[in-house]
Amino acid sequence: QAKADGRNTMSFFDPEMQAALNARAALEADLRRGLKQGQFELHYQPQVDYTGALIGAEALLRWNHPTRGLVQPDAFIPVAEDTGLIVPLGAWVLDTACAQLRAWSDTLDTAALTLSVNVSARQFRQADFVDLVLSALDRSGANPRCLKLELTESLLLVDAEETIARMAALKAHGVGFSLDDFGTGYSSLSYLKRLPLDQLKIDRSFVRDLLADPNDAAIARAIITLAESLGLSVIAEGVETVEQRDALARQGCLSYQGYYFGRPGPVEALFKHRA
Ligand code: C2E
Ligand code: MG
Ligand code: MG
Ligand code: MG
């Protein structure tokens, strides 16, 4: 049929390319079905302070696939983004996260916990994104101050004014913002200053070699100093050892997330994290 529509679609006859296209189409159909059949779940990874006390969690999406088992986000988020399925999927994530926050608000022990939720650029740019978040909060009865949206630098490069306006609208209701994977993108410092952020999240690539690579240590230190000067909090992701935690603490970073404290898992496991 490539010939029939008269375009140069030579690549359609490349068997490898064709196989990739087929796999992608199958994945898309599978995703659509999974969403309809409730195959997605949120896992929670602890965030702790220097004393090891639980301060919050990050919600991480998992696909409980009937034949493939638990599928990690890197295997399906990119396709969900390309196909637009990230929009309904992201709405489900927000609803589920807000319901969890609402449940935590019932006990003194858990009422102050914050929940960080990842937001894709494509999702954030939907015209009704602000309403979507506010109505998820409303429906659940969750405290907006306990919800933290994680954005990435890439999102901030497109249409700065609109981005700032949306963030400000949500912030007016108490919603917080964290800049995820910080240091891996290209945001300019003058732009960063204008964003209504609450937190910078040091990318785990800098944490990994913190003790061995002086450049990574310098970058981590610079991010911590930057957060301080901008009046933002800072958290490190990917903390796998106590030595990494201590090195971060010496530089002034006092909030952590990583395998050392706990892997992402069902919500009950959050409360069994390592201090
Ligand atoms: P992210 O937001 O940077 O999440 C942190 C990732 O690092 C998670 O991978 C987490 O499991 C992993 N991680 C945490 N601690 C450690 C550690 O100590 N060592 C190592 N090696 N890894 C650690 P995960 O769950 O596979 O998620 C990957 C990415 O998928 C996330 O990166 C985020 O960008 C995206 N994602 C996850 N859930 C959602 C979601 O609900 N919506 C959207 N739009 N994206 C999501
Ligand atoms: Mg994140
Ligand atoms: Mg991250
Ligand atoms: Mg990261």
UniProtKB/TrEMBL annotation:
Location in the cell: Cell membrane
Superkingdom per UniProt: Bacteria
Domain EAL: 24-275
Protein name (database record): Diguanylate cyclase
Organism: Parazoarcus communis
